[in-house]
Amino acid sequence: MMPHIKNLLGDKPLLLIAIFYTCFISVLFFIPSQDLPKVQFSALDKIVHSLIYFILVNLWMLYLYIKNDFQFNNKWILILLLSALLYGIIIEILQGLLTISRSADIFDVAANFIGSLIGIFFFKNIKNKLKT
After folding, report:
1. Which of 44, 69, 101, 103 sits at a 20 to 30 Å CA gap from 124?
2. Which of these, 76, 65, 59, lies nearest to 129 by C-alpha position?
3. DSSP code, position 77
4. Which InterPro entries does the entry link to (predicted)?
5. With the CA atoms of 65, 70, 73 and 75 taken in that order, what torsion angle do they form, in degrees rounded to the nearest 10?
6. Within a 10 A sphere around the Cβ of 123, how many other Cβ atoms?
7. Which of 106, 120, 18 is nearest to 67 (CA)?
8. Whole-angstrom Cα distance, residue 41 to residue 43?
């Protein structure tokens, strides 16, 4: 059954989706805050950050998983986790330096990292279902 999934999905469309999503969220993170809906519940912002990174990590993990013939190496998971963390830190620094209406927030970095960790644990628990 695995070859059917690989033939159906392939790795190039997944790579394009992962790249597109990464670029899309990069743009979203630089939209001026006055153009965003006002949120009264501040924890909602952290939940949104976690969800964005949950999706980001799962897209990249799915791509890597299929590209590597449904095998996962802990080295790739660590590289992906560190890459997501570094990406989140860079985005926050750039928000603080390049935008007027946004600021760098260490709690956003923490929420991003938590979303990434949850994404990795989620994917590791469902990956075997992709084989069937």
Report:
1. 44
2. 65
3. H
4. VanZ-like
5. -20
6. 22
7. 18
8. 6
Q: What is the dihedral of CA 45, 39, 29, 22, to 10 degrees?
A: 60
- Whether residue 7 contacts residue 14, with contact meaning beta carbons closer than 8 Å, is answered with no
Provide the angle, in degrees to the nearest 10, between the axes of the packed helices 12-28 and 42-67.
160
Token readout for 94 is 């750039």
Q: Are 120 and 80 spatial neighbours (Cβ–Cβ below 8 Å)?
A: yes
42-67 vs 106-131: helix crossing angle, rounded to 10: 40
Longest Cα–Cα distance in the chain: 52
Read off the pLDDT of residues 47-66 as tens digits, 9 standing for 90 and up: 999 999 999 999 999 999 88
